[in-house]
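User: Structure tokens for this complex, please. No commentary.
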Amino acid sequence: MTLLDVRDLSKHFPVGGGFFRGSKALVRAVEQVSFTVNEGETLGLVGESGCGKSTLGRTLLRLEEATSGTVRFGDKDVLKASRSELFALRRDMQMVFQDPYSSLNPRLTVGESVAEPLEIHRIGSRRERREMVRELFRKVGLRDEMLDRFPNEFSGGQRQRVGLARALALRPRLIVADEPVSALDVSVQAQVLNLMAALQREFGLTYIFISHDLSVVDYISDRIAVMYLGRIVEIGPRERVFRQTAHPYSRALIASSPIPDPTRRGESSVIRGEIASPLNPPSGCAFNPRCPLATEQCLRERPELLPVLGDASHQTACHHAPR
Amino acid sequence: MALLEIKNLKVEFDTEAGVNHAVDGVSLSIEAGKTLGVVGESGCGKSVTAMSVLRLIPRPPGRIVGGEVLWKGRNLLAIPAKELPDVRGKQIAMVFQDPMTSLNPVYTVWRIFGEVLEKQFGLKGAAARRHAIEALTRVGMSEPETRLDQYPHELSGGMKQRVLIALALLGEPELLIADEPTTALDVTIQKQILVLLKEIQRQRDMAIMLITHSLGVVAETCDDVLVMYAGRVVEWCAVEQLFASPAHPYTEGLLGSIPRPGQTRETPLQTIEGTVPALFEVPKGCRFADRCPRSQERCRIDDPQLRLIAPGHRVACHFPLIEEDEQ
Ligand SMILES: Nc1ncnc2c1ncn2[C@@H]1O[C@H](COP(=O)(O)OP(=O)(O)OP(=O)(O)O)[C@@H](O)[C@H]1O
Ligand code: SF4
Ligand SMILES: [Mg+2]
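Assistant:
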């Protein structure tokens, strides 16, 4: 069942040109993005820094106002929701951030931080809330006695657990996790990934998991969307995107990712160039300056996101993809 | 003789909570033209070890309290400070962890190069500029002449890292110490930089000490690898040995923590429970004992020393995963 349905979502930021009003440049951080997410699945969102992943995540939850497009969550229109409707929607849609150091209020004990969303939504009495927080702490693998400590006494992995407990407090259906394990050491990263998978099974959660680390996304996701300069260039089931890759940029990402196996040395390869400025994206296909397959058509026409080999579950935006 | 050999290095820091024994008996060596990877979790002492080589530990609060850093047999920790500039930047160069902060933001790239070229090599004016352009071209910088007149904030992360590498290579060093040179970069740019480093290494027979937290980067670029844990070396061997037959329980835990290609979330990742101990008092026994699935009574009493268990394979553990060779 479709839980989230995103259509033609765009988010533009005006930048610079402070003196000359009207001549402001636009950063097209998210441009005409469409996709759906089914209840209970994980959609992995990958791409290089500046490709718009985080802005997309924030716009979906209306932490950022969209420029245009629609976002439907269940039967509700998120972008048109009034203040009070949005307040109610927030119970169902939560966010977990990359930086476990700055995402918690240093003046609140971690117990208070986790209780805060419950308070804001007037759920339970003080005593009941405290009991709920205890329960949440157990769920994320933190000990009871840690409740009354401050975030600075916690390690990165522990803080990320607190962040998850806080996000779970309102029993949301969707969690957008923005680079939730990127700041963590690998052994701690594994703990948090295992925890997220277990919580998903237990609560039937739906995740949008944003990461630049392909091995992590491959592990945690059912489906994967690859973004480049504000647009989705490929989306599909995990094994299709990773093993029947249709877009040259997705191939480049996979080929550039280091493989933790010295016997496979030499399998990875380099792609030239750097991501263009979102202020001044190349015409046609935005990937064309770096693309080994680029032809004249790629310089002129922007490719649309279309099914690969006639299968609508796997789509890509490339003129040279097999249709 | 090894190009660089570190013997039993010890470094401490004074902190409010007491003395932090950040590096406590680290030994390693690097041969000319080879790459040694140094891995381990945040805070295990990788950067402190690297900075000690060129005596760059800020003092106070830090101090090197023991050991030797032998550069072609000469102990750099014992030479007069005025001889250090002959080594620093010329024979041994460093690229630091954070390209965003290691370039002076108010200087153009040209001015940054100009200062180094004048101070270290006595080059000025047009000759210096030609030299700088050549240096940038060698590290694959696009439009080097334009870049020279830009400020660091006008460059992408990858370009900044290329500038830093170009600066480090000016003196044609025999050893490049690169501390997380690609951690802040996207994977496609990381790959470009790693390939660049390997290429320069081949051309010049330069040795590289590559500090990283990525086992993937180690597998792709290093000849040998050192695994550090809590200020100590716990395993040291050829890269192939590390991945095929890790000997230390900590190494095995690290390897199990990374998702394998094709592994899905139905199969939980292996984890190392618990956290790294604080190093305010030198612990008795093995530092990994609290988290170790193989620990026994002896581990809590007796501090395991780094020893050879197979040709080229050293481990500091009483109960390693592979048997000691008979002989
Ligand atoms: N200037 C300093 N003052 C006080 N303590 C320091 C200083 N520099 C390093 N330390 C301490 O020394 C220990 C080792 O730090 P080091 O920077 O070498 O770790 P690392 O392995 O490089 O970690 P990372 O992966 O996070 O870069 C840590 O406990 C750290 O807090
Ligand atoms: S010495 Fe003992 S505690 Fe330490 S790593 Fe080996 S088995 Fe584990
Ligand atoms: Mg470091």
